[in-house]
Amino acid sequence: MNRPKKKIWNGNVRDAALSILMEINDNQAYSNLLLHRTIEKYGIEKKDRGLLTELTYGTLQQRMTLDYYLEPFVRGKLDRWVRELLRLSMYQIVYLTKIPPHAVVHEAVEIAKRRGHKRIAPTVNGVLRNVLRQGVRSLDELEDGSYKVAIETSHPEWLIKRWSEQYGPEEAAFMAYENNNPPAMTLRVNVAKTTVEEVIASLEAEGLEVRRGDVVPSCIISMSGNPSGTTAFKNGLITIQDESSMLPALALNVKSGMKVLDMCAAPGGKTTHIAELMNDEGEICAHDVHDHKLALIKANADRLGLQAIQTISGDSRKLLDHYAVASFDRILVDAPCSGLGVIRRKPEIKYTKTEQDFENLSNLQLELLATASELIKQKGVIVYSTCTVELKENKEVVERFLAKHPDMMKIPLQQLEGYEKLFISEDMLQVLPQHFGGDGFFVAAFSKR
Fold this sequence. Notes:
- The protein contains 19 helices and 13 strands.
- Strand 11 and strand 12 form a beta hairpin.
- Strands 5, 6, 7, 8, 9, 10, 11, 12 and 13 form a nine-stranded mixed beta sheet that branches. A four-stranded antiparallel beta sheet has the order 2-3-1-4.
- By secondary structure, the chain is an alpha/beta fold.
- The chain is globular, with a radius of gyration of 24 Å.
């Protein structure tokens, strides 16, 4: 097979986007991390970063739709990188009206010349020029149903059908369409240091357009500007975090002086939130199985000026080797999951997950909860959370956990600050992306009987 040449940054944004897309396909790399690493590694200028991000995420998000448009124009088998180049070009032609179509074709042909053998460039040129002459076929030709939603939203049909069974066809379609919208830039105010009002005033003074969040009292939504470049960020007054992701720490209902365990803590967004809610008074043990990720937790804590957090690596299912039974007042089990609630941020997830993943992950989640049930004090609280919308990892895990541990019970969430605005069923919270624009998230809380 003819392989593309090694990635070299030559100032060409489309070439860089193609390299990122290929690495995502070949190595199952996360788009958000790879994009950030590419920008940092090659020092890509600010004027090019927006286009690089748009090309990468857009092509990933619309992959199945782009293949539907390309299908009538492609004959025979293509190398993977050539198909990805055609997708990238088709995305610009169909979705980016400010880029002249003929310029897109020219750039694609030049990339093909650099990366492939002499017959590749004419093939790319022919396909794309036929697209310009004939136009793409309409999605309206598709019959209404799960397949049409799948193609229109670029979600595998099995996933649309699964969501339809769990939430109903209308909600499933709504969620799939919402997953292709860019997420809001949301900020968490460090309430141990300042107030929401003071931060809003500071951000507005630096030219940002902001407003209060829709659910969480300490959340601010930024409509314009770069919050990470502000004085508030540098001084540890804000953290960039999705609003849904702020809900698990609130559910813990922590108090100053408590001893708290965060079992799956990296990169530390929820860990630092817990410390802020405790006014940085008490003890927070932040564990993660990946030793190299503990540095991220410490860096976050240092920037925010938090002293109560200590980081420890290792398998959190084996924490009874480190702590005595009934050691903690509060435990957060923000468990590893399929991540189907954060497809807007990692669009590749929808193409790589399988139904077997749900089974494997739910077993891991149950093991973590079982360990937590041993480590929690008699009047303590365990919060279980995931960033997925999959019931097998959420509601069904809760039901299986309670069936295996009759000494544990669910406790209400409704009276918690922020939760009064949300729909809670059977003392469990399932947020979908379309509810208030946050990530898909699940939260349940337990205590001993």
